[in-house]
Amino acid sequence: MATDTSTLEPLPIPEPDRPAYRAKPKDWVRENLFSGPVNSIVTIVGALVIAFLAYRALRFLFVTARWEAVHVNLTNYMVGGFPRDELWRLWAAVYLLTLLGGMRWGVSVHRTRPTDGRAEASWRAPLRRFWPFIVFALVVVGLSASPVTAAALLGVGMTAFIGRVAGIRVPPRGVRWVTILFILGCVAAFEVMVAFGGVPYPDWRGLMLTLFLSLGGILLSFPLGVLLALGRRSTFPAIRALSVAYIELIRGVPLITLLFMAFLVLGFFLPPGTQTPSLVARALIAFVLFTAAYVAEVVRGGLQAVPNEQVEAAQALGLSPVKITALIVLPQALRAVIPAMVGQFISLFKDTSLAASIGLAELLRVAEQINGQPRFTGHGLQAETLGFAAFVFWVGAYWMSKTSQRLEKRLGVGER
Amino acid sequence: MSETGTSAGPMIVCERVGKWFGDFQALKTVDLEVDRQEVVVVMGPSGSGKSTLIRCINRLEKHDAGRIVVDGIEMSDDLRNIQEIRREVGMVFQQFNLFPHLTVLENVTLAPRQVRHKPKREAEEIAMLQLERVQIPEQALKYPGQLSGGQQQRVAIARALAMQPKVMLFDEPTSALDPEMIKEVLDAMLELARSGMTMIVVTHEMGFAREVAGRMVFMDDGQVVEIGTPEHFFTNPREERTKKFLSQIL
């Protein structure tokens, strides 16, 4: 284990060698699928069922399905009734975000441990990491059958790559600046959408609204949840009681109730004279309040997993209680709960479809509305319209799940 | 009356220190003075209060009776006063207690940067110096989980030393180690003792005690039973309980 001390980056955790045994395909089939009469029957029956289902699914996808309902409404799926004259704003925002996101991704190669780094360096890495998005882009291009859309989406992919190449060239010292740039870029992208005659977020619809509610929900509920978890362990009885009351109250109520409350009765809680926030803002508040309670419980589990000896060691070094929490306890606690936390966020992503119940035309609602269009009403196209919405949800949820696994590996969850 | 940094007088004074855990009295009126540059080795059967005593000296445990004075600073309930003492007192634990999410170097630079507010460069220089002192500078960029127990314990020593403490407390530093790793840790402690560090060491390592201890303290049942030079302690103990303990471990 030679060690290079010339760089200050963390060193690889050597990967244990795996046994290189691999059976020949023929042997594998015999051992696993046809090892006995019962096994053989199960294999054959199973294969028939799978083949039948696959046949029906493929036949639906490529033969019987009438995709023109989706084809015609593709833009509605993405942005609903967003003014078509202003769509350039959306593209500009997307391009800006992919460029900076690509840069941030390129920069992260520096900090990745070389075991991952080998994979990062090859062209397969982006495929492995973003293939749900690539499938998404291909499906969208296929459904739109428009060369302009294809070119625009290809441009997005290329922009991400350009950003990545630029990011890789940033020296390690500049990593912090790229992150700051990325955050500024997010603000700028938002401004591009809304400023100077743009479309304010309460008017966003379709997938864009779904993403806004999800991202906003994640970004706001996470810090609130962490604060609640810390509050629940506070030594001040008042703070502890408040946190416990909040968490237990929210967790005892269905999300849809919160949404209706935000919809109908939020006005009563606001000081008189204040303007009632927009419907989107009210939905966002409900999602944040709801998710924060669950995040708090997840984080609390992580906090309990950090042994008290860690706190003692930090105390013995003279660290203040705030620094012990921020530098020793929280980092270890959050690492330990990445899987549960991401699970919570995936739930939130899918639960944003409940916003439809208070009249917000997010992705799922758009799908339903299509069936009400004069051209498609009564044609029974739910399988197509809802199926496409489900596919979009799957892309997002699957990518989040993959990202969580990657984060776990990179941050070394389970290594003590 | 608490004067900081007085170079005269004993480094640590424990006067009639008492400690209860619920109904159980872990320490019963313990009196102990440790001079500057003195190495005191504490022995005694398990449950005798050795660990509790040294954990009271940096306030990992709150003593319920008596007074403790470290380098002229009297221990009070005031957090700032406690922090002031903890800055001067380094501690090494039985289970190392390194921070697993930080590299070795980050473990060692953490306190100098966060508590002493040293710039990163300077903190890293101090850290590398201390890592060289315990002879593992080449491990600086690894994570604790990648090191052996002996290496981890030496990092823990370097981490405590990086705060440039005036006193070092060792709570059974070799008890959790495999036999072949004990020596490397004891060597680091020997070097430290010879450099003039004031140390209180809870250990059952006889060889170490014979070599560097200025005085031996034998504790039993929450009390100091006997204090004396190693020579006196090992060859000619006065108290019956000490004799019995020694006969069991020798």
Quick summary of this structure?
The complex is a heterodimer of chains A (416) and B (250). Chain A is mostly helical and 416 residues long.
CATH superfamily of the largest domain in chain A: MetI-like
What value does the Rg of chain B take, in angstroms?
18 Å
Helix content of chain B: 25-40%
Shape annotation of chain A: globular
Q: Note the total helix count of chain A.
A: 19
Number of domains of chain A: 2
Net shape of chain B:
globular
Give the amount of beta strand of chain B, in percent: 15-25%
Largest sheet of chain B: 6 strands, mixed
The CATH architecture of the largest domain in chain A comes to Orthogonal Bundle
**Tally of strands of chain A:** 0
Which two protein chains have the largest interface (Cβ within 8 Å of the partner's Cβ), and how many residues from each?
Answer: A-B, 31 and 35 residues
What is the beta-strand fraction of chain A? under 5%
The helix/strand class of chain B is alpha/beta
Order of helices and strands of chain A: HHHHHHHHHHHHHHHHHHH
CATH class of the largest domain in chain A: Mainly Alpha
General description of the model:
The complex is a heterodimer of chains A (416) and B (250). Chain A has helices at residues 25-33, 37-64, 68-72, 74-79, 87-111, 114-121, 124-144, 147-169, 175-194, 206-232, 237-251, 255-264, 266-269, 279-305, 308-316, 321-336, 338-351, 363-370, 382-411. With 416 residues, chain A is mainly α. Chain A has 2 domains: 83-199, no CATH class; 205-416, MetI-like fold (Orthogonal Bundle), CATH 1.10.3720. The longest helix of chain A is centred in the C-terminal third of the chain and has 30 residues, at 382-411. The two termini of chain A are 20 Å apart. The relative contact order of chain A is 0.10. Chain B is α/β, with parallel strands linked by helices and 250 residues long. Chain B is 38% helix and 24% strand. Chain B contains 9 helices and 10 strands. Chain B has helices at residues 50-57, 79-88, 104-114, 120-133, 149-161, 179-194, 206-212, 230-235, 240-249; strands at residues 12-21, 24-34, 39-43, 65-70, 73-74, 89-92, 167-171, 198-202, 215-220, 223-228. In chain B, the strands form 2 sheets. Chain B has a 6-stranded mixed beta sheet with strand order 6-7-8-3-9-10, sandwiched between helices. Chain B has a 4-stranded antiparallel beta sheet with strand order 2-1-4-5, with helices on one face. In chain B, strand 1 (12-21) and strand 2 form a beta hairpin. Chain B is globular and about 55 Å long. Mean pLDDT of chain B is 90; it is low at 1-5. At the A-B interface, helix 15 and helix 16 of A face helix 2, strand 6 and helix 3 of B.
